[in-house]
Design goal:
The protein is mainly α and 192 residues long. The chain folds into two domains: 81 residues, no CATH class; 102 residues, no CATH class. It has ten helices and two strands. It starts with a strand and ends with a helix. About 5% of the residues have low confidence.
Length: 192
């Protein structure tokens, strides 16, 4: 079954709405801040896999809008940044930025070193480093699109491993709801 541009876009919207529906009703996803597109997409991926493996149905979606939509999405996130919020962050935000930059450098040095020791192209070490671990799936996709097939598909797993590690290692701060006061957060923490 092949979907054109409009059908693919409509299907993506339905998947997103399904994600909102599931997250709203399943506490686990809310507690761990699992994004609605991820929940809806994973659910549909499982359904499509089952349909393919049991009934032999295959689905092909139009991919020409993927790059444009990713650019719009990440640009909209960047446009939502405000200088006032950065100033409000103060010293803790500065420390966070410095630590993030340091860890990105460590990820890249480690990735390049391991790639060199294994005798593979050192740029693969960058891909397994901060490109996927810090940049995530979107960063991998944008790098993959620019590489003309140079970056193998299997390297996207670095983003998945990083995401899973962060979510499963210590989810307590992620489980705090968006409370208006510290007292509400404290009440929430003690109720868990």
């Amino acid at each position: 079954m092949t979907f054109g541009i409009f059908e693919t876009l409509a299907f993506a919207c339905l998947v997103l709405l399904l994600g909102f529906f599931i997250v709203k009703r399943v506490r686990f996803f809310r507690n761990y801040n699992i994004p609605e597109p991820v929940v809806g997409g994973f659910f549909i991926a499982v359904v499509l896999y089952i349909l393919n493996s049991t009934m032999g149905l295959s689905f092909k979606f139009e991919g020409s809008l993927q790059t444009a939509m990713m650019l719009i999405f990440f640009t909209s996130i960047g446009l939502s940044a405000e200088f006032e919020k950065l100033k409000k962050g103060g010293k803790p935000l500065l420390i966070f930025v410095l630590l993030t930059g340091t860890f990105m450098l460590v990820q890249n040095i480690f990735g390049i070193s391991i790639a060199s020791l294994l005798g593979i192209n050192p740029s693969y070490g960058l891909i397994a480093g901060s490109i996927t671990l810090t940049g995530g799936h979107g960063n991998w996709c944008s790098m993959g699109a620019k590489s003309n097939g140079y970056i193998p598909h299997k390297w996207r797993h670095g983003a998945s491993y990083g995401l899973c590690y962060v979510r499963l290692s210590d989810g307590r701060p992620n489980r705090w709801p968006s409370c208006k006061s510290a007292a509400e957060k404290e009440k929430y923490k003690t109720s868990q």
